[in-house]
């Protein structure tokens, strides 16, 4: 069987892994030969020429260091201040410094040069996410004929947003160098096809995108998932139960509304708290009867737009407290800290409402995890943004437009008022969908599609 080479921006570290993706890929690499390649997390004076291997809990991981300047241009710059906001349709929050593109390209070239000597001819290469769009081009330029697949964890943008990205023509050509591109949702496949097949060529200062040949690139949706059965177990583990008891003591009879997110502007956090504010304003009876807990650890906090989102959230949480709190009742708790998976599983299980309202999201695994952790005898209700990839998988959630805070407030009211029979029947459908779209099957189906067992393992394309 061919080896699998997983490539991502960061390589996983030792110890328990948070997040289903790392667990699933680790499982793939424990069942098949291969290794994981990526940045070590270390900054060096000189660009690294070679990767160094490390054994990480039985998995082979090859890492390279990056210089501070390259890392800044590639990661905080082009990847997270241009690609991330544009792909999430937040051009207002993008910083278009086109010179970052050179650093982005340089790091992708460095990844390719360090990876190439480690490859065998029939290795299957699976590249992850927007940091590494040019990697297949760079590898092919060095002579790699391997099958190479790319998975985009975030949404694919509309054509207009793509046009705002410096060198978008080259990036689209880079995508055409993959054998397979996987997206989270059908919506992303449609946006990609729209651009690849129909959009007017972009001729100013760049490549004419009409001339890019996608005929040898397969494009398909592979919605990622979690391990809902593992979450179900985790949610009744001693660590989770400890958290449940602790929260129950604090909450008494109050119903818990829970949000769990990285502190990112794509997650719609200020809008979410505003919706909760409207719920309390419009429904006097919920005061003292509900409590909202938002867990949102800072993320990418060297980037100005992230600090501003954090400030906005501070302000709106303060406003809701000032407006509705009593000396002996707080309407919400806001925690800027990450929790381990067992504690999260306990919180999910206890929450009557899982409030998952990103403005745009590739998938959103919190929605999957929340469903997995519910008590089948007394499940909570998922209020879910229709702009998360998860909305395609979970139509039985209460789907909302997160920009419309009145609508979200009304969904919260419905969720809190929903009777047990309806909660159970919705949850059963949701759980069945979460099981169908589990993360192990996701990885297997992507790899099967990239390199079917009975096919030649080299790419059919010219180098
Ligand atoms: P993220 O934007 O990070 O991922 P998401 O899928 O919701 O978003 O969450 C990732 C993981 O982080 C989850 O496993 C969750 O448990 C964990 N997490 C989030 N907040 C946490 C907290 N406060 N404390 C502890 N753990 C927390 C990107 C894309 C998503 C896509 C994933 C996977 O933006 O759309 O679903 O990749 O493809």
Automatic annotation (TrEMBL):
Protein family per UniProt: Belongs to the glycosyltransferase 20 family.
SUPFAM superfamilies, sorted: UDP-Glycosyltransferase/glycogen phosphorylase
Gene3D superfamilies named in the record: Glycogen Phosphorylase B
Pfam families from the UniProt entry: Glyco_transf_20 (PF00982)
Organism (species): Devosia rhizoryzae
Protein name in UniProt: Trehalose-6-phosphate synthase
Alphabetical list of PANTHER family matching this protein: BCDNA.GH08860, TREHALOSE-6-PHOSPHATE SYNTHASE
């Amino acid at each position: 069987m061919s080896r699998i080479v997983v490539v991502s921006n960061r390589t996983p570290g030792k110890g328990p892994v948070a997040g289903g993706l790392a667990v699933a890929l680790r499982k793939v690499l424990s069942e098949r030969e291969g290794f994981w390649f990526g940045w070590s997390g270390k900054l060096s004076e000189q660009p690294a020429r070679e990767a160094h291997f490390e054994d990480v809990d039985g998995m082979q991981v090859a890492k390279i260091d990056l210089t501070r300047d390259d890392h800044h241009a590639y990661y905080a710059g082009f990847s997270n201040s241009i690609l991330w906001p544009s792909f999430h349709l937040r051009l207002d929050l993008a910083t278009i410094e086109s010179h970052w593109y050179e650093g982005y390209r340089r790091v992708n070239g460095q990844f390719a040069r360090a990876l190439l000597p480690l490859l065998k001819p029939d290795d299957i290469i699976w590249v992850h996410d927007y940091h590494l769009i040019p990697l297949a081009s760079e590898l092919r330029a060095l002579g790699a004929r391997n099958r190479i697949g790319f998975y985009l964890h975030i949404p694919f943008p509309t054509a207009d947003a793509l046009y705002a990205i410096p060198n978008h023509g080259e990036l689209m050509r880079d995508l055409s160098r993959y054998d397979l591109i996987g997206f989270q949702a059908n919506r992303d496949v449609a946006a990609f096809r729209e651009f690849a097949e129909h959009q007017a060529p972009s001729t100013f200062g760049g490549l004419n995108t009409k001339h890019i040949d996608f005929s040898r690139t397969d494009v398909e949706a592979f919605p990622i998932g979690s391990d809902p059965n593992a979450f179900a177990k985790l949610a009744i583990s001693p660590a989770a139960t400890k958290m449940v008891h602790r929260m129950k003591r604090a909450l008494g009879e109050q119903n818990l509304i829970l949000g769990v997110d990285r502190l990112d502007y794509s997650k719609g956090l200020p809008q979410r708290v505003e919706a909760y504010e409207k719920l309390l304003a419009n429904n006097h009876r919920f005061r003292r009867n509900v409590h909202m807990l938002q867990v949102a650890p800072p993320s990418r906090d060297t980037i100005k737009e992230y600090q501003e989102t954090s400030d906005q959230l501070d302000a709106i949480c303060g406003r809701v407290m000032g407006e509705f709190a009593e000396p002996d009742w707080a309407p919400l708790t806001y925690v800027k800290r990450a929790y381990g998976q067992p504690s999260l599983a306990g919180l999910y299980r206890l929450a009557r409402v899982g409030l998952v309202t990103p403005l745009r999201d590739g998938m959103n695994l919190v929605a999957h995890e929340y469903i997995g952790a519910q008590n089948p005898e007394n499940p909570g209700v998922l209020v879910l943004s229709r702009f998360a990839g998860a909305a395609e998988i979970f139509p039985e959630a209460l789907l909302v437009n997160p920009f419309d805070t009145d609508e979200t407030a009304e969904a919260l009211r419905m969720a809190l008022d929903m009777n047990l029979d309806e909660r159970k029947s919705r949850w059963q459908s949701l759980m069945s969908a979460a099981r169908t779209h589990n993360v192990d099957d996701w990885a297997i189906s992507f790899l099967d599609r990239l390199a079917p067992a009975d096919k030649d393992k080299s790419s059919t394309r010219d180098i």
